[in-house]
User: What shape does this take?
Amino acid sequence: MNFEQPLTRWKFLKREKRFFIYGTAEGQVAHCANTGSMKGLLDRATHVHVRDYGENTTRSLRYGAELLELPGGTLVSINTAHANTLAGEALAAGLVPNFSQITALKKEVKYSDATRFDWTFATPTQPQVWCEVKNVTLAEGHTALFPDAKTERGTKHLHTLTEIVQNGGAALQLYVVARADCTEFRPAAAIDPAYAAALQQAVAAGVQVAALECEITPQHITICKTLPVMV
Assistant: This one.
């Protein structure tokens, strides 16, 4: 995934009311597409890289926050919309373990009146695989963690994926690790023990789980490697 234009680097000041990130460059403010806690980022960020939509944009804010820069230069993608795009690119390119040959890739497919999954696709042995994507920004040391706050919605998704497999279907929980300084992925049991337990149950039932780490620059974001998943 390439950024359509070069990003502008501001010195990071603060996030306010979840939707706004402030930088010291000309006192500007950028829209923040990540409404989560962003634990481990906001207290460490030194700079924010923003997209400029131009003076004539119809958006409420001219700038959109794309990356946070941490000490040492680590870049973290904070635009959660990119996770689905990257997941789709990885699936189409055969980069997800155990799913190298897929067809009929479809985005945002309704499973029930209450549930919609990010992707579905077919494989030579399964007519339909249901896939949920989660964007991962939290890390402790070199361990990527999800979630960064309690998520009833995420736990519900795991329960539904588990039910799909128990009923003879196929399912994939895919984590897009939006940073390039991790060596493994784990559920954040200390933050949300219910989610961690649901992930363990999903794996035991046969739900496939994969974590993909990103290479991030101010010009592009690409999937660079698979991380071991420790549940």
